[in-house]
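Hi all, a correction to my earlier message: I attached the wrong file for Tripartite tricarboxylate transporter substrate binding protein. Here's the right sequence:
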Amino acid sequence: MRRKTPAKVGRRVFLGGTAAGFIAAPSIVSAQNDWPNKQIRVVIPYPPGGPSDVTTRIVLERAGSILGQSILFDNKAGASGAIGAEHVVKSAPADGYTFLTTTTAMVCITEHLQPLPYDTSKDLVPVARTATSWMGMGINQQVPANNLQEFIAYAKANPGKINFGSAGLATITQLYGEIFNIEAGVKMVHVPYKGSAPATNDLLAGQIQVQFDPTTLPHIAAGRLKCFAVLGEKRWPGKPDVPTLKEQGLGKIGGDAWYGILAAKGTPQAAIDRMSAAIGEAVKDFALNERLVASGNYSSFQDTKTFQATIERERVSFGEIIRKADIKV
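and the right structure:
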């Protein structure tokens, strides 16, 4: 195998990133180890255009520049992320050149609701958390309501007639709708899609009436969708006049919609550590954070150890919510 010289590493980083990336590179790409010496592939288990896809591309493109290698993004959508995850677990060699985008649902929720062809806690290892989404409660313009209380009253008067879309079965976007049904005392009907973007398209067209998802935010800002609440601990900067669910007495159960990077079990620890460090360096970039916020997300980096603890904690808490609320797919 041909070894890279320090000069070649520096040239790659200089061409791919900023001066800040060049300064950080020596601590990440050591001349004493060849990784990475070829293109890195990141499997995104959802369709293009959704929040997991957008956040991954924004953060990992920058991380790739810091590492001095290009990133190949490979969308393998379906089965609420399970198709892409199974591909990484069973098909891709654990050589440090294939990584997997994860959502909260993939490692903390789905296993409580449906069987999976792999064990998330044994077959996949955390690398880093990248970003967290604000989630808008997007509502089609034809729904006859002007605030959250009017919407709840309309939903109660029309049980089973309001459809809410999600990115797929057993995703956090489904869980938020189910939790809203419980907290508000309504009976909206769940309609699963193969990703967030196609659900939003049908929301705009009036095929469904509600969606709890980051993909609704640009359309809310543009006035194409109504929004009576955002999900999260703080208001969305794109529409600061819209209160959170918690400010209106709902949204008390659940968790954040975050995204991160995983690797297959057996991936060299050096590759995991250096990818994590590159992601941590990437999210310090001001322009990158502006792009994230513009897309309805914000950087929420966690290193490998912290991310592992978050996954373990939220896997337990979401399991308790699902059991107590008797939520089924």
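Sorry for the mix-up. Residues 200 and 216 are 6 Å apart (CA to CA).
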